[in-house]
Design brief:
Elements lengths: L3 H10 L1 E2 L6 E2 L31 E6 L2 H13 L2 H16 L9 E4 L9 H17 L2 E2 L4 E3 L12 H8 L3 E3 L1 H4 L6 E9 L3 H12 L4 E9 L3 H4 L3 E3 L9 E3 L3
Parallel strand pairs: 3-9, 4-5, 4-8, 8-9
Antiparallel strand pairs: 1-2, 6-7, 10-11
Helix pairs in contact: 2-3, 3-4
This protein binds zinc ion (ZN).
Protein backbone atom coordinates (compact mmCIF):
# COMPACT_ATOMS: atom_id res chain seq x y z
CA UNK A 1 0.00 0.00 0.00
CA UNK A 2 1.29 3.42 -0.93
CA UNK A 3 1.01 5.87 1.89
CA UNK A 4 0.32 9.58 1.45
CA UNK A 5 4.00 10.39 1.99
CA UNK A 6 5.08 8.19 -0.92
CA UNK A 7 2.42 9.69 -3.15
CA UNK A 8 3.55 13.25 -2.35
CA UNK A 9 7.22 12.32 -2.74
CA UNK A 10 6.43 10.76 -6.13
CA UNK A 11 4.69 13.92 -7.23
CA UNK A 12 7.60 16.13 -6.23
CA UNK A 13 10.52 13.91 -7.04
CA UNK A 14 9.29 11.61 -9.79
CA UNK A 15 12.24 9.69 -10.99
CA UNK A 16 11.88 7.76 -14.20
CA UNK A 17 13.86 4.80 -15.40
CA UNK A 18 16.23 5.86 -18.23
CA UNK A 19 15.47 2.56 -19.98
CA UNK A 20 11.66 2.15 -20.04
CA UNK A 21 10.64 5.61 -18.82
CA UNK A 22 8.44 4.19 -16.06
CA UNK A 23 8.62 5.72 -12.57
CA UNK A 24 11.14 4.14 -10.20
CA UNK A 25 11.15 4.16 -6.41
CA UNK A 26 12.40 7.61 -5.41
CA UNK A 27 14.05 6.13 -2.35
CA UNK A 28 15.56 3.16 -4.15
CA UNK A 29 19.30 2.75 -4.69
CA UNK A 30 19.27 2.63 -8.47
CA UNK A 31 18.05 5.10 -11.09
CA UNK A 32 17.27 2.12 -13.31
CA UNK A 33 14.21 -0.08 -12.68
CA UNK A 34 14.67 -3.73 -11.74
CA UNK A 35 13.42 -4.96 -15.11
CA UNK A 36 15.82 -2.81 -17.14
CA UNK A 37 18.85 -3.07 -14.86
CA UNK A 38 20.23 -6.37 -16.25
CA UNK A 39 20.00 -4.88 -19.78
CA UNK A 40 22.32 -1.95 -19.00
CA UNK A 41 25.54 -3.63 -20.08
CA UNK A 42 28.44 -1.49 -18.88
CA UNK A 43 31.35 -1.49 -21.33
CA UNK A 44 33.16 1.55 -19.93
CA UNK A 45 36.27 -0.50 -19.15
CA UNK A 46 36.88 -1.10 -22.87
CA UNK A 47 38.84 1.13 -25.23
CA UNK A 48 37.85 1.14 -28.88
CA UNK A 49 40.13 2.01 -31.72
CA UNK A 50 38.73 4.67 -34.02
CA UNK A 51 40.78 6.32 -36.78
CA UNK A 52 42.20 9.81 -36.08
CA UNK A 53 41.69 9.74 -32.30
CA UNK A 54 43.52 8.17 -29.34
CA UNK A 55 40.58 5.95 -28.42
CA UNK A 56 36.82 5.91 -27.95
CA UNK A 57 34.93 4.85 -24.88
CA UNK A 58 31.23 4.21 -24.41
CA UNK A 59 29.35 3.68 -21.17
CA UNK A 60 26.90 1.05 -22.40
CA UNK A 61 26.37 -1.42 -25.17
CA UNK A 62 23.64 -0.12 -27.47
CA UNK A 63 21.18 -2.92 -26.83
CA UNK A 64 17.86 -3.55 -25.03
CA UNK A 65 16.73 -0.85 -22.59
CA UNK A 66 19.76 1.38 -23.39
CA UNK A 67 18.57 1.51 -26.97
CA UNK A 68 15.02 2.35 -25.87
CA UNK A 69 16.25 5.06 -23.50
CA UNK A 70 18.48 6.72 -26.08
CA UNK A 71 15.74 6.60 -28.69
CA UNK A 72 13.34 8.27 -26.27
CA UNK A 73 15.95 10.94 -25.63
CA UNK A 74 16.62 11.37 -29.35
CA UNK A 75 13.14 11.27 -30.82
CA UNK A 76 10.90 12.26 -27.95
CA UNK A 77 13.13 14.72 -26.14
CA UNK A 78 13.25 12.79 -22.87
CA UNK A 79 15.63 15.09 -21.00
CA UNK A 80 15.60 12.86 -17.92
CA UNK A 81 17.09 9.99 -19.89
CA UNK A 82 19.54 12.45 -21.49
CA UNK A 83 20.66 13.71 -18.10
CA UNK A 84 21.15 10.14 -16.88
CA UNK A 85 23.39 9.27 -19.84
CA UNK A 86 25.31 12.57 -19.63
CA UNK A 87 26.10 11.93 -15.97
CA UNK A 88 27.32 8.40 -16.69
CA UNK A 89 29.57 9.73 -19.49
CA UNK A 90 30.98 12.38 -17.13
CA UNK A 91 31.74 9.74 -14.49
CA UNK A 92 33.47 7.60 -17.11
CA UNK A 93 35.62 10.51 -18.37
CA UNK A 94 36.61 11.51 -14.85
CA UNK A 95 38.26 8.14 -14.33
CA UNK A 96 40.44 8.43 -17.46
CA UNK A 97 44.14 9.04 -16.88
CA UNK A 98 44.32 11.75 -19.51
CA UNK A 99 41.51 13.79 -17.98
CA UNK A 100 42.09 17.11 -16.27
CA UNK A 101 40.07 20.33 -16.10
CA UNK A 102 41.97 21.80 -19.07
CA UNK A 103 40.35 19.28 -21.40
CA UNK A 104 37.80 20.74 -23.82
CA UNK A 105 34.40 19.11 -24.30
CA UNK A 106 33.15 19.31 -27.90
CA UNK A 107 29.81 17.91 -29.13
CA UNK A 108 29.34 16.40 -32.59
CA UNK A 109 27.62 19.20 -34.51
CA UNK A 110 24.27 18.80 -36.23
CA UNK A 111 22.76 20.75 -39.11
CA UNK A 112 22.57 24.36 -38.10
CA UNK A 113 19.89 25.54 -40.50
CA UNK A 114 17.17 23.45 -38.89
CA UNK A 115 16.36 22.60 -35.34
CA UNK A 116 18.09 19.32 -35.60
CA UNK A 117 17.50 16.63 -33.04
CA UNK A 118 21.06 15.39 -33.18
CA UNK A 119 22.46 18.85 -32.69
CA UNK A 120 20.39 19.57 -29.64
CA UNK A 121 21.16 16.13 -28.37
CA UNK A 122 24.96 15.93 -28.52
CA UNK A 123 25.00 19.51 -27.29
CA UNK A 124 22.67 18.69 -24.42
CA UNK A 125 24.95 15.86 -23.34
CA UNK A 126 28.19 17.78 -23.80
CA UNK A 127 26.98 20.87 -21.95
CA UNK A 128 25.96 18.86 -18.93
CA UNK A 129 29.14 16.77 -19.03
CA UNK A 130 31.35 19.88 -19.14
CA UNK A 131 29.48 21.38 -16.21
CA UNK A 132 29.86 18.19 -14.16
CA UNK A 133 33.57 17.96 -14.96
CA UNK A 134 34.20 21.72 -14.62
CA UNK A 135 35.81 21.52 -18.04
CA UNK A 136 35.62 23.99 -20.90
CA UNK A 137 32.71 23.58 -23.31
CA UNK A 138 33.15 24.58 -26.95
CA UNK A 139 30.26 24.04 -29.38
CA UNK A 140 31.07 26.56 -32.11
CA UNK A 141 34.42 25.29 -33.37
CA UNK A 142 32.88 23.34 -36.23
CA UNK A 143 29.62 22.94 -38.06
CA UNK A 144 28.01 20.33 -40.23
CA UNK A 145 27.75 20.88 -43.98
CA UNK A 146 24.21 21.30 -45.27
CA UNK A 147 24.58 18.55 -47.85
CA UNK A 148 25.24 15.84 -45.30
CA UNK A 149 22.37 13.38 -44.83
CA UNK A 150 21.43 11.81 -41.53
CA UNK A 151 23.49 8.64 -41.04
CA UNK A 152 20.28 6.67 -40.56
CA UNK A 153 19.27 7.53 -44.16
CA UNK A 154 22.32 5.68 -45.48
CA UNK A 155 21.80 2.03 -46.19
CA UNK A 156 25.26 0.55 -46.41
CA UNK A 157 28.39 1.00 -44.36
CA UNK A 158 30.16 2.43 -47.40
CA UNK A 159 27.38 5.01 -47.87
CA UNK A 160 27.61 5.98 -44.21
CA UNK A 161 31.37 6.42 -44.43
CA UNK A 162 31.23 8.45 -47.64
CA UNK A 163 28.38 10.60 -46.34
CA UNK A 164 30.23 11.59 -43.20
CA UNK A 165 33.87 11.64 -44.43
CA UNK A 166 34.13 15.41 -44.88
CA UNK A 167 30.97 16.42 -43.11
CA UNK A 168 32.29 19.16 -40.84
CA UNK A 169 33.69 22.61 -41.45
CA UNK A 170 36.05 24.31 -39.05
CA UNK A 171 34.93 27.68 -37.75
CA UNK A 172 38.24 29.52 -37.85
CA UNK A 173 37.19 32.22 -35.38
CA UNK A 174 36.39 29.70 -32.70
CA UNK A 175 39.14 27.24 -33.57
CA UNK A 176 41.73 28.93 -31.36
CA UNK A 177 39.83 27.61 -28.35
CA UNK A 178 41.11 24.15 -29.25
CA UNK A 179 44.74 24.90 -30.03
CA UNK A 180 47.13 22.77 -28.01
CA UNK A 181 44.25 21.27 -26.03
CA UNK A 182 43.10 17.78 -25.23
CA UNK A 183 39.68 17.52 -26.83
CA UNK A 184 36.96 15.08 -25.85
CA UNK A 185 34.35 14.63 -28.57
CA UNK A 186 30.88 13.75 -27.28
CA UNK A 187 28.25 11.81 -29.18
CA UNK A 188 25.23 9.83 -28.07
CA UNK A 189 25.76 6.63 -30.05
CA UNK A 190 28.80 5.37 -31.90
CA UNK A 191 28.29 2.82 -34.63
CA UNK A 192 31.16 2.60 -37.09
CA UNK A 193 33.09 5.47 -35.52
CA UNK A 194 33.12 7.36 -38.85
CA UNK A 195 31.34 10.42 -37.44
CA UNK A 196 33.83 10.73 -34.60
CA UNK A 197 36.77 10.28 -37.03
CA UNK A 198 35.45 12.94 -39.32
CA UNK A 199 34.93 15.41 -36.46
CA UNK A 200 38.39 14.56 -35.11
CA UNK A 201 40.06 15.41 -38.42
CA UNK A 202 38.33 18.80 -38.32
CA UNK A 203 39.33 19.44 -34.72
CA UNK A 204 42.92 18.49 -35.57
CA UNK A 205 43.02 21.32 -38.11
CA UNK A 206 42.41 23.69 -35.20
CA UNK A 207 45.61 22.42 -33.58
CA UNK A 208 44.10 20.12 -30.95
CA UNK A 209 46.89 18.09 -29.42
CA UNK A 210 45.11 14.92 -28.40
CA UNK A 211 41.59 13.80 -29.22
CA UNK A 212 39.43 11.27 -27.40
CA UNK A 213 35.77 10.40 -27.77
CA UNK A 214 33.12 9.49 -25.23
CA UNK A 215 29.64 8.21 -26.05
CA UNK A 216 26.62 7.02 -24.13
CA UNK A 217 26.50 3.78 -26.07
CA UNK A 218 28.24 1.84 -28.78
CA UNK A 219 26.62 -0.56 -31.20
CA UNK A 220 28.23 -3.97 -30.72
CA UNK A 221 29.92 -5.37 -33.78
CA UNK A 222 28.75 -8.50 -35.54
CA UNK A 223 31.72 -10.32 -34.13
CA UNK A 224 30.71 -9.37 -30.59
CA UNK A 225 27.09 -10.46 -30.86
CA UNK A 226 27.35 -13.18 -33.47
CA UNK A 227 24.26 -11.63 -35.07
CA UNK A 228 23.71 -9.97 -38.38
CA UNK A 229 22.66 -6.35 -38.38
CA UNK A 230 19.74 -5.31 -40.44
CA UNK A 231 19.82 -1.64 -41.23
CA UNK A 232 16.78 0.42 -42.20
CA UNK A 233 16.88 1.16 -45.88
CA UNK A 234 15.02 3.76 -47.94
CA UNK A 235 11.41 2.71 -48.66
CA UNK A 236 11.97 2.50 -52.40
CA UNK A 237 14.57 -0.17 -51.93
CA UNK A 238 13.28 -3.60 -51.20
CA UNK A 239 16.57 -5.27 -50.51
CA UNK A 240 17.43 -5.54 -46.87
CA UNK A 241 21.04 -4.66 -46.37
CA UNK A 242 23.07 -6.73 -44.01
CA UNK A 243 26.16 -4.86 -43.13
CA UNK A 244 29.26 -5.57 -41.18
CA UNK A 245 29.81 -2.63 -38.90
CA UNK A 246 33.51 -3.21 -38.40
ZN1 LIG B 1 13.02 0.42 -16.73
Amino acid sequence: MRNIFTVIADMILTRRCPGCGEPVDVFGKSDICETCLPGFKDISDKMFYVADIEYLKAVYSFTGPVRHGLHRFKYRGDGGAGAFFADRIAEMIKKEKFFNENCVIVPIPGNIEKTDREYVQAEYLAKRIAKKLKAQYVCDAMRKKKSVKSQTECGTLRERKENIANAFILNKEAANKLEGKTVIIIDDISTSGSTVSSAARTVKKAGAEKIYAACAARTPTRKETGKKYIVKCPPEMRTVYVINRE
